[in-house]
Amino acid sequence: MRDWRWVFIVLLYLAISLTTESFEFRRTQRTERISGSAGDVLEDNPIGRLKVFIYELPSKYNKKILQKDPRCLTHMFAAEIYMHRFLLSSPVRTLNPEEADWFYTPVYTTCDLTPNGLPLPFKSPRMMRSAVQLISSNWPYWNRTEGADHFFIVPHDFGPCFHYQEEKAIERGILPLLERATLVQTFGQKNHVCLKDGSITIPPYAPPQKMQSHLIPPTTPRSIFVYFRGLFYDVGNDPEGGYYARGARASMWENFKDNPLFDISTEHPTTYYEDMQRAVFCLCPLGWAPWSPRLVEAVIYGCIPVIIADDIVLPFADAIPWEDIGVFVAEKDVPNLDTILTSIHVDEILRKQRVLANPSMKQAMLFPQPAQPRDAFHQILNGLARKLPHGKSVYLQSGDKFLNWTAGPVGDLKPW
Amino acid sequence: MKAHGIIERVQAEQRSQYGVKNHRTVIAVTPTYVRTFQTLHLTGVMHSLMNVPYDLIWIVVEAGPTTNETASLISKSGLKTIHIGFDAKIPLLWDDRHKLESRMRFHALREIREKRLDGIVVFADDSNMHSLELFDEIQNVKWVGAFSIGIIAQYSGDSEEGEYTIVQREDNSEKKPSRLPIQGPVCNSSNHFVGWHAFDKAAFVERSARYVGDRAVVLPREVEWAGFVLNSRLVWEEEMDKPVWAKEWEEVAREVEEVESPLALLKDGSVVEPLGGCGRKVLLWWLRVEARADSKFPPRWIIDPPLEITVPAKRTPWPDAPPELPSSSEKVVTIPEITERRPTKNGSKRKRSSRSKKKQRAKVIDEHVSTQNSRDN
């Protein structure tokens, strides 16, 4: 470092950033440091910062269901299964519930699949209720807090509302028994019934080996400007159009199907992953739910995600500064997508690519087996650790009772 | 367009981040002369060199004085070119021509020496085909590198035997010679350079070409210049870092007639660095194809005076003649075809997909699309 002026400027920046608590960046050639609203926490190691007790449920709640349909290990909701496996052998696990900070209930509610592979949520509320009944009657820890120091993984479309249709999900609301628990879910939307305060949003499951196997050399030039593969209309469920994706995808298609900069179609080519690595921007519009594996794929493959989902809450939102990584476009602005994307300054684009290139970023989106440091499993634990120590309100005072065990649709009360 | 500017910058950044660091200039040496196939060959090399992502200097050595023909060809490349003449005429026999080309390349090396050009010297003969990976791979060379070249010597002219006639050789040989048409370095299992793989010419020798323009196949010699690359500093005068095994220039220049390959510049052949996965990757294809010696072509391929009609067309559409009815109706039919083709780019593909859900969607979307079309028309 012979350039003293450069050193002085860096020192000046550091001084300013320390005083104004602004985003600190290190001028590494390839990547940029990631710092979210919770601070520089992607690199945190949760081991030693919390203890998790795993309830022993009869295998009908987990193993037997998986045996019936092994497809649950590869679909986008597989996080509920892999999290269980990870916790079973993790150093944060404790066999002594008295010293546990968090209690985990391994119930696979998203494994009742149609022949096509889509999970049916109809039995899930009863299944979850049955599990809670079991743990509350066999152990004292649920009743101690009415679940406030318990966490559940609910990765389905609208999470703890247990329905794939938004209207019905809102109608149901969060399962009453889970009102005090911490929910780990993929669904996230601000001011929505199905996302409660204190929930941890996670990425959907994407098979890590499969994604690794489709990597192409990073020297391959990115020559596609905008890339998207997926539905624009869901004729089966929304024949008139207008409901699916609140019309945003239809608008994408109608406005840009002839634009040579937009490589968009409904085909599912075998080179889908490779194509993403040759694209600068990857569109991630909402579908029936705002989240999609596309976000994970875009991050892994270094394609800047263009998020078109109003009020969406993205995975690990307090640890990952998504505004610095992706581009947010309001659903009503879809017709101007081309202008919006071309008017981003090229330095900004290069910066986003540098942040995306940070291996911590990619690692945080994945659920590798066996688990690796800073992966999604660890980010979930980090999120749980950040909520410690539990506040006083977690523990019930004598006579307190918050949960209504008979609330909800009558059908939910039937035993599972 | 802004988007293209963005893409350019992104790709430049990719190159600087992941591409070869500290890349050196490529100095391509091409001996050439004016003949029918010159445009064909030189255009091929030119386009390959134009795609090289590194700085490039192209030294074109022309037999006979430099001509405008060659000059105008290479000027279209936009590359930095050095066009030098070599005072000799290309001989008719292939053997003699190979020798002359060696001397022409040596002349180019002299030019590099005099001008102290710095970079990696590649021998890009004008009828060869180069892969772009070659230029990335040679950046790894320290002094002298060799890589495998594929020899295009398939004989397809004779009607009796259209395939390799090596079959006849089987009874003569004790050790089966390798049939691969490759010339290049060979390594042992610990990736050390141990020797050369030469192209087995024995099967072809009886029917190989003797003179330029001969119908028969042209064979390479034992070692071809094209399979080597040099650090240009090897030929510099008073270069401190020159390794001990480099011969003195004057010594080599005295026996320039004997120079058959860059190996003549070395005292010890074992210092050659094998490139391309230790010779496992073929980075260049060697071919010699020339037109018959008596073939004529218009200078610079510009037709002047205009050609005379040799075969009159049956129906020449003269502007003052009224269009006949059948031909005009043809024209009308083609127009809607073209417009339909564009938007159903996705529609036709969807029809072919197997999932039943998609088929339903395809029908509706085609309706969407075709209603749009009808509105446009």
From TrEMBL, chain A:
One of its GO terms (cellular component) is Golgi membrane. It is a single-pass type II membrane protein. GO terms for molecular function: 1,4-beta-D-xylan synthase activity; glucuronoxylan glucuronosyltransferase activity. Residues 49-344 form the Exostosin GT47 domain. The keyword ATP-binding does not apply. It is found in: Golgi apparatus membrane. Transmembrane segments: none annotated. GO terms for biological process: glucuronoxylan biosynthetic process; plant-type secondary cell wall biogenesis. InterPro entries: Exostosin, Exostosin_GT47. Residues 1-22 form the signal peptide. Keywords: Glycosyltransferase, Golgi apparatus, Signal, Signal-anchor, Transferase, Transmembrane. Belongs to the glycosyltransferase 47 family. This is Exostosin GT47 domain-containing protein. It comes from Erythranthe guttata (Yellow monkey flower). The lineage of its organism: Eukaryota, Viridiplantae, Streptophyta, Embryophyta, Tracheophyta.
TrEMBL record, chain B:
This is Glycosyltransferases. It comes from Erythranthe guttata (Yellow monkey flower). The keyword rRNA-binding does not apply. Its EC number is 2.4.-.-. GO terms for cellular component: Golgi membrane. It is found in: Golgi apparatus membrane. One of its GO terms (biological process) is glucuronoxylan biosynthetic process. The lineage of its organism: Eukaryota, Viridiplantae, Streptophyta, Embryophyta, Tracheophyta. It is a single-pass type II membrane protein. Residues 363-377 have a biased composition (Basic and acidic residues).
